[in-house]
Specification:
alpha/beta, elongated
């Protein structure tokens, strides 16, 4: 069961610590204002009822009550405002930390947990706001306000304080029992939400293919079934919430009633003064109020707490150890018996891969879909650790294991253009430059070589045309040519192209062929993952990639 306030959250998220400290300070101030208001109110009413003071004589106490209540209202507003601001920062920081750690865990881990991560960093963490805005302040009030008011009551009437101290533990016990049931329903609901999200993501990703095959509506029944499962989980959580709220209210009411009856009987016998009795009766409900509110808000925050618990588990996942060896200019990179076992498969893809990419040469990876071409490229980039074999870099006379080198230094020498490039939102100029210090002439030259210049020429705003995330507004081929333009502007010594002609017509494919040939002529090592025969024909080295471990794969040197 998740802890009410997990110390791991405070250690991992700096904003959470400042939020908790600020909320605690405001709660202490609220407690002081409440105690002052209760004592002044009891003193004023007691003196009026007893007839020992006139209205004019209690005007000071009445004004003090109004001021204390106004201060408490202002502090309550400030607490909620600060909690909202803190929640925004905590969610953003937790999301950023989770995504950064997932990126360090590598594409293989992400492939196995893609739907779960997508759910956690979107709707899962968004549900953390009720925890920080409602549940956490009430939790701190329970930890600070409840014992403080209990001590104040003990100074007024020890018997009433003892009565509350005896009945008070019943509420946490019932909350614990209710929490066990809530945790189970919340976990089931989160799992149902992840299954629904995974199905919808798969459906959206393959919608074009499904529509082409006339099967676009074939998964509607399954999506509806998953949606119904999530609806049932939500209703189950609500039922538990309503029942637990009723149980907590009943316990709190009985506790206050016991104190009120005891005070009333002792008022009749004269054992307790009227001012003391009124002070106890005003403060007694406030002892139990935070506990009641904690139980109420716990259910609203349960989804967020479950998401944070899972995010903290992800942050505890061990990251592959990165090398630290110095890396000079790389002249060659090679696969030596590399096996990669993709998640959910029993045979490696690729298997026993041998091949090399040299500066000034063109290497082509070819093979059927699913043979492991992309996995081979990811292993070469250091983004995927081989299950067998090794990737080596040649630097001068040295041959270095990629696992031993500083990956950042290696990545600075490589430009990678995947089949579906991810491009930041901004203008075309900003996306193409991406932090590279290049002038307009260099930008135009790279665009001419990649074939993107004709796309820019057809746009009214040219290079100042804004595009959204993933370069929305451009076709798949245009996005790839834009990414290629960015790669050409970088000072990379190696260029990796994944299916560069997949979305292009014959004229544009010929332009890609010229680009690859010119890059190799300029001393760049070019690796192309492709089925295109014209690129295979232009290669200096062709490496055939296949799944399975039947026989090692060898490089066929053509030139």
């Amino acid at each position: 069961m998740a802890k009410p306030l997990d110390p791991a959250l405070l250690r991992s998220v700096r904003s959470a610590r400042s939020t908790v400290l600020a909320t605690a300070a405001l709660v202490v101030a609220q407690t002081a204002a409440l105690v002052v208001a209760a004592l002044l109110l009891a003193r004023a009413l007691g003196r009026l009822v007893e007839g020992s003071a006139a209205w004019s004589e209690v005007a000071g106490e009445a004004l003090g009550v109004l001021v204390a209540l106004a201060v408490r209202a202002a502090l309550t507003t400030a607490t909620e405002w600060r909690a909202h601001r803190g929640a925004t920062r905590v969610v953003a920081e937790m999301r950023d930390a989770t995504l950064r750690h997932v990126a360090r865990l590598g594409p293989r881990w992400l492939e196995a947990h893609r739907a779960e991560v997508a759910t956690l960093v979107t709707r899962g963490l968004d549900a953390l706001e009720p925890y920080l805005v409602r549940y956490l302040p009430q939790l701190l009030q329970t930890a600070l306000l409840t014992p403080a008011i209990l001590v104040v009551i003990a100074t007024q009437d020890l018997l009433s304080a003892a009565t509350l101290a005896i009945t008070l533990p019943l509420i946490p016990v019932f909350m614990w029992l209710i929490g066990l049931a809530t945790e189970r329903t919340t976990r089931r609901r989160l799992a149902a939400q992840q299954r629904l999200d995974a199905r919808v993501l798969d459906l959206v990703a393959g919608l074009g293919t499904l529509r082409a095959l006339g099967r676009a509506r074939g998964t509607v029944a399954r999506v509806r079934e998953l949606a119904d499962a999530e609806r049932r989980g939500t209703m189950s959580t609500l039922r538990v919430a309503f029942l637990s709220g009723a149980a907590l209210e009943l316990l709190a009411t009985l506790s206050v009633a016991v104190v009120a009856v005891g005070v009333g009987l002792r008022l009749v016998t004269g054992e307790v003064g009227l001012v003391t009795g009124l002070a106890v009766l005003v403060l007694a409900p406030e002892v139990l109020a935070p506990l009641r509110h904690v139980g109420t808000h716990f259910h609203a925050s349960a989804d967020g707490v479950a998401a944070v618990e899972r995010c903290l588990e992800i942050l505890r996942e061990p990251v592959p150890v990165a090398g630290t060896a110095d890396l000079g200019p790389v002249e060659e990179v090679e696969w030596d018996g590399v096996d990669v076992l993709p998640p959910g498969r029993t045979l490696p893809a690729p298997a026993g891969l041998h091949g090399r990419v040299r500066r000034g040469g063109i290497t082509v990876l070819r093979g059927p879909s699913g043979a492991g071409k992309t996995s081979a490229a990811l292993a070469l980039l250091g983004l995927l650790a081989p299950d067998a074999g090794v990737v080596r870099l040649r630097v001068g006379d040295r041959r270095l294991d990629l696992r031993d080198v500083d990956l950042a230094a290696w990545h600075a020498q490589v430009a990678w253009v995947p089949q579906h490039p991810v491009l930041e939102p901004g203008t075309l100029r900003e996306v193409a430059l991406a932090g590279v210090d290049a002038d307009d002439e260099a930008l135009r030259g790279a665009a001419e070589r990649s074939g993107f210049a004709e796309v820019v020429a057809a746009l009214p705003l040219g290079w100042d045309t804004p595009v959204g995330g993933r370069a929305r507004g451009l076709s798949a081929g245009q996005r790839q040519r834009l990414a290629t333009t960015r790669a050409l502007l970088s000072p990379a010594r190696f260029l990796v192209l994944d299916e560069p002609t997949a979305h292009l017509d014959s004229a544009s494919s010929a332009q890609v062929l010229r680009l690859v040939t010119e890059a190799a002529r300029d001393g760049v090592g070019v690796l192309v993952l492709t089925h295109a025969p014209e690129l295979v024909a232009a290669a200096d080295e062709v490496v055939t990639v296949a799944a399975g471990a039947a026989e090692p794969l060898a490089a066929e040197v053509l030139a």
